[in-house]
User: Fold this.
Amino acid sequence: MSRVFVYARVSTADQHTDNQLQEIEQAGFQITKGRTITETISGSVAANERPGFRKLLDKLEAGDVLVVTKLDRLGRNAMDVRATVEALTKMGVRVHCLALGGVDLTSPAGKMTMGVIAAVAEFERDLLIERTLSGQARARAAGTHMGRPSKTSPADQAAILKALAKGATVSSQAEKYKISRATIINIRSAGAKV
Assistant:
């Protein structure tokens, strides 16, 4: 016989998981204290980084059922929910979501739902990449330096290029400025392009 586990989460201390537990009980699931995990933690924290959820993962075994009221209890966004449900499915755990009509997300109907969630997750990821690239392009256009801060000032770089042009070795310049040979080589390559 399958063991039923419940996961209920709220974001702030002034909220309570009582409504979620009541909703699960009214749906016909028996709530057992030892198989109920409640926690107060922001939804922005990935499921596998939540102490209560990690404790739940330690208890779950193949054949168990995990019940949640809404998908957002399982993750911070569609990508996180998808990864969480996939990980639970690989463990042999069935996931029931009451907000989706109590559908078992590992059943054929649930897999279709997860397919839609996967499409949304991919769309979210693509939008995130697009926004990131757009922000980087805007920053570059505004003259913002991208990447790590330079280990040398423009004046030091000019002095290094001048010394190299006069015959100084890469190693001597690296030692003098206490930077790596690779950095000196990069400065020399950048100077050659100018």
